[in-house]
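Q: My labmate handed me this sequence with no annotations at all. I'd like to see what the chain might look like in three dimensions before we decide whether it's worth expressing. Could you predict it?
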Amino acid sequence: MQLNNDELDLLVWLGGSEFSQYGECHGITLDSLVAKGLAQIHEGTEHQDGFIAKGPGKMYRAVSLTDAGREELNK
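A: Here is what I predict for the chain of 75 residues:
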């Protein structure tokens, strides 16, 4: 699968732990990984944070790689 540098960086970062639970996951790169089936957002973890995620975007407290994401990371 073709990933741009931002997507690859986020894939590697998310692969560093089972879950990202720092409240800092957001943005078009995450949206892209989710759309490609490489990452998943855990339900009930959305929140608004106008200071960090300026604009209408939502942030997520729990994000992880899918099995496909782990496979892509291990290529």
